[in-house]
Amino acid sequence: MFATLLKKINDAKLLPKISDTERHALEAGSVWVDGEFFSGNPDFRRIMAEAYPALPAEEQAFLDGPVEELLHKVDSWKLRETRRIPDDIWQFLRDKGFFGLIIPKEYGGSGFSVLGRSAVMMKTSNLGPIGTLVVIPNTLGAAELLIEYGTDAQKDKYLPRLASGELVPCFGLTEPTAGSDAASIKAEGVVFKDTDGEAKIRLNFSKRYITLAPVANIVSLACSLHDPDNLLGKGEFPGISVVMLEKGTEGLELGDHHLPIGPFDNGPIYGKDVIAPVDNIVGGRDGAGQGWRMLMEQLGGGRAVSLPAGGVALAKVSAAATGPYSMVREQFGIPVGLMEGVETRVARIAALTYAMESARIYVCAGVDNGNHPPVISAILKQQTTEVGQQLVTDGMDVMAGAGVMQGPNNILGGGYVGAPVGITVEGANILTRTLMIFGQGAVRCHPHALDTLNAIQADDVPAFRKAILGWMRHSTTNFFRGIVRGITRGWTVRTPVNDETAQYFRKLGWAASRFAFMTDLAMFLIGGKLKQRGKLSGRFADALSWMLFGVTTLRRFDAEGRRKEDLPLVHWALRYSLQQIQQAFEGIYANFDVPVIGWFLRYPGRFWLRINPLSTGPKDAMDRAVAASIQKPGEQYARVAGGLGTPRDDEPGMGRLIHAWRLVSDAQTATFKVRKAMHKKQVEATDLVAAIDPAVEAGVITQDEGDKIRRAEAARMEAIQVDTFSAEDYYKDEVADNREAPHMARAANQ
Question: Which of 21, 16, 41, 116 is nearest to 493 (CA)?
Answer without folding.
Answer: 41
